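Retry 2 of 3 after timeout on previous attempt. Resubmitting structure tokens to design endpoint.
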């Protein structure tokens, strides 16, 4: 496998009401979801979530956490009818997760598409903000991961992997990569510590919030390697690696490198291609120490006794990945992998010299460049609240207010995915995964779809007493090529079910 695999990004957005710090975020988040859904013709009781196959307490290490000892935030398999929760025609899920509106992208097959549908989610949130602005005071949404006062909310990545890969190997070989990956993909943050008690600037929004190396939790005792074993696919064949460590990215290049480099490292782990131990001593404290050093000059200690800079360890991963790709595919390598390896090298080359040279590609560097401009102009110390305000404004989803958007509009950061392409992805699903079937059902038979999930579509057939559940457990089936003609040719949901059943009988 190359960088190409089934993957996706889920992002919880920060939310606030201008001039009303005590506003209820759950109610506001519900307004975001229902307002956008209504604008797309989706009714609240339509296209909700099917929880039948959710297993949030199943641990990849081979056991289940008891429901009695689980934190309430871990029970994500319980339907709360008071929480807005819809599936969009682009195959994504838009819902309220705890106290935040969350957009979970549809399944895609390569890092560039992951960036496209992640940016589509940002436009979904921007659209909702504009609609709610007609009812003052409206809401503001932020694509970030902390409020700077002690709360953190996630941007999670998902990668489909082979079930055959021992999970212990994933833990051992992925952990050192995750400890240093933030150097390329961190979004930058004003303040040190979970509540920003100490002054300063750090690489990543999330690193101070991690307390464990491995674990099932996602909102407390956060682990570098999350063990939730919920494949949303054929469980005997696949596992879904649920990554909770990363930041929300505005820079396309950083987002692409984050998804692509991780997918390549996973491919090497699946093929047992690592021939040397790159383990880092004390991963959790080291994760924070790396984040706290924007100079990139400090060293970290490996288990073999070596002390190296984090960017040097990333270079080692890049060289191993390039060799792995060359040995396995030679000149037959796909263009997605070539693009990821090229940008990965470009970013590292910049970071190895003066880190500010990476300002066009890496979020934390681009943000630091803006902040240093304010600091120099107004002689501001890192404890000045105006810098924290700039940090928040960086992630504002509005194009005229968000500083990251303004840099992109003035060509000061590299744009790989034009806004028009992301806008098209707000309504259209990827054509090469089961997301296409999910979205097509919602588009063509909106009155019949009762619920959906990553691996099912539940429909109501006129005259039938029970609902019909269509399983879509194989992520690479249900593509436009595979079922497009069946969907297009169906006059109603009953005829679609009959056509799908005929195909299944023929396959048997």
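Retry 2 succeeded. Sequence:
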């Amino acid at each position: 496998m190359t960088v190409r695999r089934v993957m996706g990004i889920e992002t919880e957005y920060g939310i606030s009401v201008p001039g009303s710090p005590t506003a209820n975020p759950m109610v506001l988040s519900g307004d975001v979801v229902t307002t956008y859904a209504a604008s797309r013709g989706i009714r609240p009781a339509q296209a909700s979530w099917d929880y039948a196959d959710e297993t949030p307490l199943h641990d990849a290490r081979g056991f289940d956490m008891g429901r009695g000892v689980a934190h309430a935030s871990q029970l994500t398999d319980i339907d709360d009818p008071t929480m807005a929760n819809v599936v969009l025609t682009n195959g994504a899920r838009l819902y309220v997760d705890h106290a935040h509106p969350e957009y979970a992208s549809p399944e895609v097959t390569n890092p560039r598409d992951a960036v496209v549908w992640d940016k589509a989610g940002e436009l979904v949130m921007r659209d909702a903000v504009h609609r709610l602005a007609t009812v003052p005071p409206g809401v503001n949404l932020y694509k970030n991961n902390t409020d700077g006062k002690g709360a953190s909310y996630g941007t999670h990545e998902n990668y489909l992997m082979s079930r055959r890969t021992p999970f212990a190997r994933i833990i051992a070989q992925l952990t050192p990569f995750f400890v240093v990956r933030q150097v390329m993909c961190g979004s930058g943050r004003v303040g040190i510590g979970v509540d920003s008690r100490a002054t300063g600037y750090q690489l990543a929004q999330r690193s101070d919030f991690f307390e464990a190396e491995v674990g099932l939790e996602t909102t407390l005792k956060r682990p570098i390697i999350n063990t939730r074993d919920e494949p949303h696919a054929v469980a005997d064949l696949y596992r879904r690696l649920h990554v909770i460590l990363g930041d929300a990215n505005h820079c396309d290049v950083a987002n692409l490198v984050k998804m692509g480099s991780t997918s390549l490292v996973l491919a090497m782990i699946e093929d047992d291609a690592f021939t040397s131990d790159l383990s880092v001593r004390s991963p959790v404290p080291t994760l924070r120490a790396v984040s706290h050093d924007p100079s990139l000059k400090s060293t970290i200690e490996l288990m073999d006794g070596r002390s190296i800079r984090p960017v040097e360890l990333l270079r080692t991963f890049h060289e191993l990945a390039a060799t792995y790709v060359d040995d396995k595919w030679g000149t037959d390598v796909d263009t997605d992998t070539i693009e990821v390896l090229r940008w990965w090298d470009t970013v590292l080359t910049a970071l190895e010299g003066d880190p500010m040279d990476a300002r066009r590609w890496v979020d934390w560097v681009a943000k630091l460049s803006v902040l240093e401009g304010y600091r120099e102009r107004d002689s501001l110390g890192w404890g000045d609240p105006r810098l924290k305000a700039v940090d928040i404004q960086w992630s504002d989803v509005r194009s005229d207010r968000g500083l990251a958007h303004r840099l992109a509009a003035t060509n000061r950061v590299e744009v790989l995915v034009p806004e028009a392409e992301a806008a098209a992805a707000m309504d259209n699903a990827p054509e090469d995964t089961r997301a296409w079937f999910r979205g097509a059902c919602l588009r063509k038979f909106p009155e019949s779809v009762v619920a959906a999930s990553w691996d099912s579509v539940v429909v109501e057939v006129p005259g039938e007493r029970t609902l019909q559940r269509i399983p879509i457990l194989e992520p690479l089936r249900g593509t436009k090529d595979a079922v497009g003609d069946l969907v297009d040719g169906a006059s109603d949901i009953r005829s679609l079910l009959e056509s799908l059943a005929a195909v299944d009988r023929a396959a048997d």
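Attempt log closed. Residues 252 and 415 are 6 Å apart (CA to CA).
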